[in-house]
Amino acid sequence: MVQVKPFAAIRPQKELVTEIAAPPYDVLDSAEAKDMAGEKSLLHITKPEIDFDPILPDHDKKVYDQAVSNFQKWQKKGWLVQDEKPCYYVYAQTMNQKTQYGLVLCAHTDDYANEKIKKHELTRKDKEEDRMIHVRIQNANIEPVFFAYKDKEEINEIVAKVTQAEPEYNFTDENHFGHTFWPITCQETIDRITSIFNNEVDSFYVADGHHRTAAAARVGAEKKAANPGHTGKEEYNWFMAVCFPESQLQIIDYNRVVKDLNGHSTEEFLQLLAKDFIVKETGEEIYHPDRLHNFAMYLEGKWYSLDALPGRYDDNDPIGVLDVTILSGIVLDRILGITDLRTDQRIDFVGGIRGLEELKRRVDSGNMRVAFALYPVSMEQLINIADSGKIMPPKTTWFEPKLRSGLAIHKLD
């Protein structure tokens, strides 16, 4: 079973939460972050390159030093204050009138090493290293990771009871998503939550934050190796996560745009597609994929429906059934010559939160030649893949809304 514990969060004064809370570090580029960040925004801590003019590269030593200085400053000024006792916290997010309820808690680094915290994506070492540096220099998890777990009715009942009270924070962000937050201070409730997770929940599933999870685990291992008196009870053995029951989560589409047709004319490209798909032109109105193995394509001002022919996928294989596998293997690799989705500069990825209008815009602008929209992966598929020990292709899942950074921070001492 997984290990969890409460922690005494460092978090904003109630009246400052909307000024401090910010999107995650990887949602905005540096210029966007600089434009958004007010005086007290957490972006000065998570993306401190914005404090320099011109903006410095985010891996510059001056940037890392600025991150530490800003974190200390925010605490000295009383903008961020540590709770007096370890708590769990309920964090609710509302999008399109649907609310999901997560528990903010500490997970154990050993569970990552022992694969009780299950991943479905590969990480890049350079991004891991960058996140490790931030955890190491701050001696804190500034931003949480996003986990899912298989539903436990008693936890749902506890959360429902907690959320009947007046929340500590309740605000709407720039995307019109709601964020609501309740500390759980009752010791009996805290002990019961710990007991349920430690005795009844066998796995966590990384939904979003693979690099932050890996970085937190590696920093914990570093500190363990450097401490001859290590007991296993130190705070550095733990890292901050927000954990949601899987039934409340929905994955939205993660789409692709490509710069060229790999030397093929439009007619040749459509003929090649017809060998593996039923290709139907649907006109100028945006077409949305409505089922598994159905794709939308936008090319030269027209939308197309692509239905993969039988034999082009394997519904009995957790990876082979995925539409990203079909598109990557048949279209991107075989026809368009894109073999490495992580490094090829001819392809870009567009989260479904931006809508298929964004795909049309990217192609109509001339920057991209063709766009593909995919039917979203399900939580059941994600869990099956993680349980099987397999890895999804890159850029397969997009979770929305994103966790707001700055509502809670976990110190490693």
Q: Helices, strands, pairings?
A:
Elements: E1 4-5, E2 10-12, H1 17-20, H2 30-36, H3 43-46, H4 61-76, E3 80-82, E4 88-95, E5 98-108, H5 109-113, E6 117-118, H6 125-138, E7 140-141, E8 145-149, H7 153-162, E9 169-172, E10 178-184, H8 187-200, E11 204-208, H9 210-226, E12 238-245, E13 251-252, E14 254-258, H10 266-273, E15 277-283, E16 294-299, E17 302-308, H11 323-335, E18 347-351, H12 356-364, E19 370-373, H13 379-388, E20 398-399, E21 410-411
Parallel strand pairs: 6-11, 8-12
Antiparallel strand pairs: 1-5, 2-3, 4-5, 4-10, 5-12, 7-21, 8-11, 9-10, 13-20, 14-18, 14-19, 15-17, 16-17, 16-19
Helix pairs in contact: 4-6, 6-9
Q: What does the model show?
A:
The protein is of the alpha+beta class and 413 residues long. The chain is built from 13 helices and 21 strands. Helix 4 runs parallel beside helix 6 and helix 6 (125-138) packs across helix 9 (210-226). The longest helix has 17 residues, at 210-226. The model has no long low-confidence stretch (mean pLDDT 94).
